[in-house]
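Researcher: Sequence recovery benchmark, item below. Answer with residues only.
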């Protein structure tokens, strides 16, 4: 009897998911099957400022997993370990996505950003403890904290496999 009740409960949960809404939310990401090779480069440590009429996004990570980062549905890079990279974007509204895979776990974090020309933004993909176990988040951090995270990390380059 308990087995039947559990199956019914889980079936209701699965039916209650709005697959269209999930797809629209995940539109900020690129294709799920794209993986990246990430190379840390300790020989250089670029920290540019935004180009004229652009905004700059730094992505900094400390976790030992690889996190992919997308802007408006296009993968723009990945980080692994204590590394960072940056990407230039036009001013305006952007939809950001960070995705990480570790074994059988696949995590997704989303963030909306209204970028202003001449402004630098810092994002930190990281694991979080949740009631249901380990989760994943993409936090926008204060510029002072972001500069400190970048200073402690190695610059990296990444390429899709």
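Model:
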């Amino acid at each position: 009897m308990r087995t039947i009740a559990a199956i019914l409960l889980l079936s209701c949960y699965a039916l209650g998911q709005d697959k269209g809404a999930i797809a629209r939310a995940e539109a900020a990401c690129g294709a799920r099957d794209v993986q990246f090779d990430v190379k840390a480069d300790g020989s250089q440590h670029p920290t540019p400022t935004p180009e004229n009429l652009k905004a700059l996004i730094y992505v900094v990570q400390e976790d030992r997993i690889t996190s992919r980062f997308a802007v408006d549905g296009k993968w723009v890079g990945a980080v692994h370990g204590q590394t960072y990279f940056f990407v230039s974007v036009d001013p305006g509204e952007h939809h950001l996505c960070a995705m990480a895979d570790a074994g059988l776990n696949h995590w997704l974090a989303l963030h909306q950003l209204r970028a202003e020309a001449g402004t630098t933004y810092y994002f930190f993909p990281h694991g979080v403890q949740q009631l249901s176990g380990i989760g994943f988040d993409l936090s926008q951090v204060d510029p002072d904290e972001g500069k400190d995270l970048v200073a402690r990390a190695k610059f990296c380059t990444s390429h899709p496999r």
